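Each record in this resource describes a single protein on a pair of labelled lines. An example record follows, reproduced without changes.
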Amino acid sequence: MDDLFPPFAPEPNEPKPRRFKPVPVRMIIPNMITLMAVCLGLTAVRFGFEGKFEPAVIAIIAAAVLDGVDGRVARLLKGTSRFGAELDSLADFVNFGCAPALILYTFVLHNLKSLGWIVALIFAIAMALRLARFNVMLDDPNRPEWKKDFFVGMPAPAGALTVMLPLYLHFLGFEMVPSLAPVALIYMLVIALLVISTVPTFSGKTIGKRVPREYVLPIFVVTVAAFGLLISFPFEILALLSIGYLVAIPIGAAQYRRKLKAEAAQGPSLPSDEAPAA
């Protein structure tokens, strides 16, 4: 009978090992900023459905600002991660692909019925393809350093802010009547093609790493003046920036071609281990 009921020794009260490692706060903060941007993009869609187009545009602009902040905060806090990169791409698709397409469809493209919806779909899908291509190009180890000054095609935030030019003009008094819906449709289709094109556009990422001391105070004054103008005349400034950006695309492409020809004239550079000794 003793074999049927062997003595039982209780386990020691040792803490169980954790299955998951704790995540540092510095890794969470950039992702929280990205999620706030997604909330703004979805709220912009809601405002668009309710006919509140001015708050919808402001929400997308705020989402674009947060999109520019989250990556820099991640690099500053050393909190970059693959999860954050994928979340940022999904957020860009919602904020800069789906939200502008739905807002413009609700604003004017619905007058063209199915044709307007098809172009809205084309814009959203073009933005998804552009973001996928951007993620693939980041993994290219053979990309020359000077090419970091250029994007391939129109970047997602610029495409979203530029495609809303009909809304800016409407807020400035140019009434977007149903007869102008085909013009808005063609314009949106052109922006979608620029987004997925291989036209090089200037990125400006490497500008301002070092600023001469004598330029610091003028830069402060110009920044304050630009911010004041944007607050006082938001849609006038947005319309001018959109038109100026479109005009600057050929200039950036010409500069890209000049640098490409200069690189071809120099010939392929030797790797460091094969370079001739001095």
Notes: The first helix runs from residue 25 to 49. DSSP finds nine helices and two strands in the chain. The beta strands are 150-152, 200-202. Residues 43 and 185 are 24 Å apart (CA to CA).
